[in-house]
Amino acid sequence: MADKNAPTVPRLLSPLEPSQLFAACDPALLTFETTDELRDLTEPLGQERAVGAVRFGVGVRAEGYNIFALGPEGTGKLALINDYLETIAAKEPVPDDWCYVHNFKDGHKPQALRMPPGKGEPFRKDMEQLIVELRATIPALFDGEEYRNRRQVMIDEIKERQDKRFAELRERAEQVHVAIMRTPVGLALAPMKEGEVLGPEDFSKLTEKEQLVIKQDMAELQDEVENFLRETPKVEKEQRDRVRELNREVAAFAVGHLIEELKKTYGDITDVSAYLEAVHKDVVENVGEFVETEETEQGGIMALFGGRRGGDESVFRRYKVNVLVSHDNGKGAPVVYLDHPTQPNVIGRIEHRQQFGALLTDFNLIKSGALHRANGGYLVVDARMMLTLPFTYEDLKRALRTHQIKIEPPGQAWGYFSTVSLEPEPIPLDVKVILIGEAYLYYLLSHYDPDFDELFKVAADFDTHLNRTEGVTLDYARTIATLARKEGLRPLRKDAVARVIEHAARLADDAEKLSTHMESVRDLVREANWWAEQTASKLVCREHVQSALDAQHHRADRIPTLMRENIEHGVMLIDLAGEKVGQVNGLAVYQLGRRSFGHPSRITCRVRMGKGEVMDIERETQMGGPIHTKGVLILSAYLASHYAADMPLSLSASLVFEQSYGGIEGDSASSTELYALLSALAEAPIRQNFAVTGSVNQFGQVQAIGGVNEKIEGFFDLCAARGLSGEHGVLIPASNVRHLMLKPEVVDAVKDGRFHIYPVETIDQGISLLTGLPAGVRDEDGSYPLGTINRRVMARLDDLTRKSKAYSESGNGKR
């Protein structure tokens, strides 16, 4: 029923009743007094579809059935998925441990060892103990009297054999009066007589026959001396070989029983058993690394070991074990969440250490990535962060395709890393990856990445809204109670819960739905708790929730306030009274961060004779977006189909958003532009106490738009600042009525008859209300009744057509 303060002009529409502007939460649905009486809600609210998709993706173990959880931030995707995965993973087997060890065949390629769960760390400690024991046992054996005696006997035996051979050679020389002398460069022969070595002068005093005999004997001896000298290195080599063999025997004795002890514990693990054999062999071959330097008369023990420097800490690192992943807690499969997915954080990295100015590395400096820790379980990754970091996404895809984790420096696959580094053996990968991100990321990846749909076959689409049923309302109350308890907040009284639920409907932009953006709800509950604290209230009440909402609005209201002040001061021209031809107050929504607000904008139209074009000045200046342009083009189609089906349009019209200096996008002002166009053609003034929103189709039907609450409140705030006259109002699409969740001030003004909201279904309804004249309906002969808007529009178009024809026939239209 129309209010008595409503305008007294003829119209076909009635304003909405106050009960249609705000869907209050029915207190009868809340069967409690405070949230202390409600049980926690453990199941995710209203996400049955997404939960089913996650359950399906986790259950299918085939290749490619990884999951992308898509939905707006704040809908609880991460919490839901983590809670579900933790429950599932606890029932699954614990995966194996993984270690990296030295590869004794190729130290550049560390070997990966798979070990039963919880065995990696004990094995590392046992190998550390093995090194300690070898470093104590081996030097003790080599310092022992038994080893020294055996070694000395071996050396003495060889030396005795050499001395005997030399003595025989010297005796043979003395028999033929030749002396064998040791020199720095070897052995030398000299003539001798009566036991004395002859010098050159004494030798020349001998008879020629004596000289000849001595020379012949010396020549024969020279061959024997050379044979002796040639055999000396062989004897020395024999000595070294026999000492080395003795060393191996001693080392084998020292390490053998220690390795056997380890085999008793780890021998049933094939890879570990083979690795222990390799350790055994390497220790025996390089036993000198365990012995401190000790010089002897034979040139020192270290000379016999090949000159290695025993006791150097760095040489024992190759016997250590680098435990990459250890599962010693035995609590099921791992669930790993990664919010900073750099390439090293995902696939692991190889670190370096500085020594004497150089960067060195070995297998001990290999660090695990999230894929290693999640192997055998689940990896949850923030998709947006992953896509903003280089190399990560491609390396993750490669790991999923090849089913193995290969650690390499960042950019190595693209040739960006030329320094020689390690090539660790790849580790087999069995993991379920869940990416979390907004819907646009999912659709972008699906469209542009050919690998994406093959690797992430399951989309868990999180709903942004819930149907506002009785059961959902009560569950929403339990969700609010759960949030408050988890954060240690005050209990909420049921009127406070009702106000939070009403705000959730406002967030959903639909009175019949509730928003699933739980982060906004959580923030509101926290802030309401603060307001309750300021009043020393033990409970959070409705007024505290309202105070929190008012404070949120006030904190974000600086820009809207400045824009209203500009209108008040006449900087921006908006008329709120009177009538104007071709001028309408349109409504726009501005988005600044998380805050959106409505604001009126003057839309004007001018018409003249032309060739049927409706010019959108925003489009001509490239300030209008494609959807806005589409809305303007619909206006031409509407004019042609309604008024000029059998004749050409001979008008030129220009439409503009006055004092708009930013981009214009969307078609929500297309009905407003059409009203301005019809007003200009009919020369019928439009009442400036109204503002209009809504899109239009070619048939003249007014269609729903977004942000209807913000648009109404934006115009209401401006009218309230100037003073509500009882004539002010807004025209909205009738299909938007279900979306109304207006603030209390608007509802109260409507209740008092100081403000009006009209639901419009067609352009004819709207133009009749705006001009106070009937739109008019075609009669049987296709003409509109006199005095109607449509009759005046058609008459103006006919007049423009006649004038255009006459102008053309007079020759003035020719160039």
Give the low-confidence spans: 1-11, 293-311, 621-625
The share of residues in extended strands comes to: 15-25%
Number of domains: 4
Instruction: Using the CA coordinates, give the radius of gyration.
Output: 48 Å
Keywords:
4 domains; 815 residues; Helicase, Ruva Protein, domain 3
Would you spell out the secondary-structure blueprint of this structure?
Layout: H1 48-59, E1 67-70, H2 77-89, E2 97-101, E3 111-115, H3 120-143, H4 145-175, E4 178-183, E5 186-193, E6 196-197, H5 200-204, H6 208-266, H7 270-285, H8 301-304, E7 322-325, E8 335-338, H9 343-347, E9 349-350, E10 353-355, E11 358-360, E12 366-367, H10 370-374, E13 378-382, H11 383-388, H12 392-402, E14 404-405, E15 427-428, E16 432-437, H13 439-448, H14 452-455, E17 458-461, E18 465-467, H15 470-486, H16 494-507, E19 513-515, H17 518-534, H18 542-555, H19 558-568, E20 579-581, E21 583-592, E22 595-609, E23 613-616, H20 617-620, H21 626-643, E24 651-657, H22 670-682, E25 685-687, E26 690-692, E27 695-696, E28 702-703, H23 708-722, E29 729-733, H24 744-751, E30 756-760, H25 763-771, H26 789-809
Parallel strand pairs: 1-16, 1-17, 8-13, 13-16, 21-26, 23-24, 26-29, 29-30
Antiparallel strand pairs: 2-3, 2-7, 4-5, 5-6, 9-12, 10-11, 14-15, 18-19, 20-25, 21-22, 22-24, 27-28
Folded structure, characterized:
This protein has 815 residues and is an alpha/beta fold. The protein folds into four domains: 185 residues, Rossmann fold (3-Layer(aba) Sandwich); 162 residues, Four Helix Bundle (Hemerythrin (Met), subunit A) (Up-down Bundle); 105 residues, Orthogonal Bundle (Helicase, Ruva Protein, domain 3); 236 residues, Ribosomal Protein S5, domain 2, CATH 3.30.230. Strands 23-24-22-21-26-29-30 form a seven-stranded mixed β-sheet, sandwiched between helices. Strand 5 and strand 6 form a beta hairpin. It is elongated. It starts with 47 loop residues before the first helix and ends in a 6-residue tail after the last helix.
